Amino acid sequence: MSGRTNIARFRLSKASVPRAREHVRLVLREWKLGHLCDEAALVVSELTTNAVTHAAQGIGDQVELVLRRRDGVLVLEVSDSYQWEMPELRKPAPEETSGRGLLLVDALSQAWGVRPRTGAGKTVWVHLAVRREGED
After folding, report:
1. Is there a domain that residue 134 lies in?
2. CB 115 within 8 A of CB 125
3. Is residue 28 part of a domain?
4. SS3 content of the chain, % helix, strand, coil (to 5)
5. For the chain: N or C, fewer Cβ within 10 A?
6. Cα-Cα-Cα-Cα dihedral of 64, 68, 74, 76, to 10°?
7. Structure confidence by residue, pLDDT tens digits, 66-89
8. 12 with 60: CB under 8 angstroms?
9. What region holds the Histidine kinase/HSP90-like ATPase domain (predicted)?
């Protein structure tokens, strides 16, 4: 079942974060990748939260979520219209109350990165290994 793609768009609002998580869970179950639901939902939750938090300063009012299954990899992409600040992995101070989302993304993923979009905005992409249930 390689080569599948799903695209969804959500409004830039806090209510979109749980909706994006649930969308990922539904798609992955349909694709028989239910064993990746928790990891993928956490990654999408972090990326969508970042988009909702920061992209309000951009020119659009939506966040786009793309899921792709390619050659043993699940690709998750979250795009928004805010292009002036690209996400960077950092180590927040112990007293900081935010800034740990990309640490989680980095720990769960095979690879991740960010690229500018044509026009305005950026896409943060994440690769998760597609493994069979029970494999480590």
Report:
1. no
2. yes
3. yes
4. 35, 30, 35
5. C
6. -10
7. 999 988 999 999 998 876 666 666
8. yes
9. 13-126
